[in-house]
Amino acid sequence: MKIKAINGFKDILPDEVHRWQRIEACARDIFQRFGLREIRLPILEKTELFARSIGETTDIVEKEMYTFPDKGITMRPEATASLLRAFIEHSLHLQRPVQRLFTIGPMFRHERPQKGRLRQFHQIDAEIIGAQEPQVDAELMAMGQMLLTELGLTASLEINSLGCPDCRPDFREKLVRYLEEKEEGLCEDCRRRRTTNPLRVLDCKKATCRALVQNAPSILDSLCAPCREHFQAVQKNLDLLGVTYKLNRFMVRGLDYYTRTTFEFIASGLGAQSAVGAGGRYDGLIHQLGGPGLPGIGFAMGMERLVLLMESTDSEQQALDREIDIFAAALGQEAMEFATPLIHALRKLSVRAAMDYSGRSLKAQMKQAGRLNAAYTLIIGEQELAEKKAILRNMDTQEQTSFSLEGDTKELAGILAKTCMETARSES
Ligand code: ATP
Ligand code: MG
């Protein structure tokens, strides 16, 4: 019986991994420009943390968490709750008044797997804690936009405000009243949400529900004065930064902790899973989790969706990656014993070097060098060894030169390393 990976859990194979590395490197680079520092967090947390932050009546907590009930622990479905738990636990606000943090890693949700939706997926998560100014909201969104742009991707930014505990209850009531009249036409989920989590109805993906809420009251009309001013200032600052955006009054987000600004980066070409990233402000959450009364804002990008987008926009065939600088094709026992320490010495000099120990034919070894896209192959047979002259073949130009084997391993490695470095430099 063959054992396969669990449904919704995916291997990231060596041929795909360069995209993941590129995304991570790009995120680290850009986030640093914005003053964010990395934090690494555990994957398991107490179940209560998610129930209290994300919300008992959200889809995530109600039905999507991987929980070990006997142990009271859960595999994190998102990063913000864990990050804030760590922030509070270590009193990070005492170190600096505004903490700018990011984390990268796997998240777990028991959802129906499909394109761009997995049960183990990966997020890049950025959070700014301790600042309530609308400039920060705009700055964070601009940072997300910069990441997408530098990855060569296009996504549109949609924004909304969810108000605050002062103005949202009013809106909620208005909405409940509106939905009461429309109950008949709502899907089963939304009939339940209508009382437990009515704002979520606005966000339902079903066409019938979408049509029904078109004339629902808009939260943007219900904002209290401070929330309205904040949201206006966010828009002004997005303009200042040259970030284009669209208002979307139906955007609600599936986590209860959001206040004021919420946003999503929407890409075309991902089908139903069109959100590559999403986030918002959570001004009451840190206090709610037992920490100081500090505001915060953050977003998470879905790495699987970024990868899908990169694949769909990589128009020209990716140039074959150079995996190896030099491959030693050694023929016979003696040549092999000559080449083995030479390869090791090259690796010490930061050269990507390889050889084959199986005693295959020259033809087979050349094929192997080609598969690795080696820049050079050093061919050493019995005759070459006797004459102290190997053949150095440039695999791109197919030009062959004689390479003197006079000198010790270290000297020979030094000369070869120099050749390889020069070639690598001229290529980049
Ligand atoms: P969706 O609308 O796809 O359900 P969400 O609102 O649940 O997303 P968040 O919890 O805000 O998403 O997570 C932020 C980002 O993480 C999403 O925009 C998406 O790119 C990614 N993401 C969320 N859930 C998954 C999943 N199951 N598989 C892959 N990526 C996901
Ligand atoms: Mg979801």
From TrEMBL:
GO terms assigned for molecular function: ATP binding; histidine-tRNA ligase activity
Subcellular location: Cytoplasm
Binding sites annotated in the UniProt record for L-histidine: 78-80, 109, 123, 127, 253, 257-258
Aminoacyl-transfer RNA synthetases class-II family profile domain ranges (all copies): 1-341
Membrane-spanning intervals of the chain: none
Top-level EC class: ligase
Any GO CC annotation of this UniProt entry: cytoplasm
Positions in coiled-coil regions: none
Chemical reaction(s) catalysed: tRNA(His) + L-histidine + ATP = L-histidyl-tRNA(His) + AMP + diphosphate + H(+)
NCBIfam families registered for this protein in UniProt: hisS (TIGR00442)
HAMAP family: His_tRNA_synth
Protein name: Histidine--tRNA ligase
Name of the gene this protein is made from: hisS
